[in-house]
């Protein structure tokens, strides 16, 4: 709600100063996970109508998998974002500094490297081939500052009841650990947030220097359900040994794949050094990293499964000789 209100005020100033402003659209994703989800959509409809901002409500259906319900919901949400945004659009999101702190601590305890510990980026492309820019303007602000702003402007908002469920790891950090740190060590979380910005600056400089090495390792790939940039292992193996794990992380970051844990990185290193006739694979969230033809490939394993299932169903239909949707009968 703070993001919506601040964006509306910015748009109004643009109109006053320039006589025009970019088009603005609010997006609400109805996940259907809460019994209150319909009332949340109604609330968003009322708020956007009051602020004269057009709203699109998207109802999504998804099935949780081995990566958990949060990851499945996130995947469905981003599919909506990609469908709503056009070339050159800017997608604003309301993540704040406390979200950043939670992310850093979660990644620290999973063995992430520099890129992972840099946390959530302030801005990035929505996807590797997209001209849509995703921007998070509140990342340097603490949650308490947004609450103060909301109170000052008499804003209404809704608390998702699932945020209190400490069975979810992020909620455990949010509800139990961060408050203890704040109480015992006042000011340390603000200092940690400042160090995140320093790490992001260092990571950006490091990847700028690393970019020429990474470009030598990139091989274009046009296979279905595979990310467009493969990693050529012969060129990767020519790099100094100290750079190889960093190049793997940088390649994954280039593809907008979440940073691997230390255990996953070690699996990737073993796979990359495997015998030429071996075809191992490592699962990273929604993506399966495979070795094939002297390259590492990032494959959308869900897309593959859906295609195989559709082909199998079509094959059964053809075998039985029933009319189907293929147009062959």
Report what the structure shows:
- The chain has 329 residues and is of the alpha+beta class.
- It has two domains: 195 residues, HUPs (Rossmann fold, 3-Layer(aba) Sandwich); 83 residues, Uridine Diphospho-n-acetylenolpyruvylglucosamine Reductase, domain 3 (2-Layer Sandwich).
- The protein is 52% helix and 13% strand.
- It has twelve helices and ten strands.
- The strands form three sheets. The protein has a five-stranded antiparallel beta sheet with strand order 6-7-10-9-8. Strands 3-5-4 form a three-stranded mixed beta sheet, with no helix packed on it. A two-stranded parallel sheet has the order 1-2.
- Strand 1, helix 2 and strand 2 form a beta-alpha-beta unit.
- The longest helix has 30 residues.
- The protein is globular.
- The protein starts with a helix and ends in a 9-residue tail after the last helix.
Give the terminus-to-terminus CA distance. Answer: 54 Å
Question: Strand order, biggest sheet?
Answer: 6-7-10-9-8
CATH class designation of the largest domain: Alpha Beta
Residue share in helix: 40-55%
Q: What would you give as the CATH superfamily of the largest domain?
A: HUPs
Q: Specify the biggest β-sheet.
A: 5 strands, antiparallel
> What is the total domain count?
2
From the alpha carbons, calculate the radius of gyration and give it in angstroms. Answer: 23 Å
Q: Which class of secondary structure composition applies to the elements?
A: alpha+beta
CATH architecture of the largest domain: 3-Layer(aba) Sandwich
The number of helical runs is 12
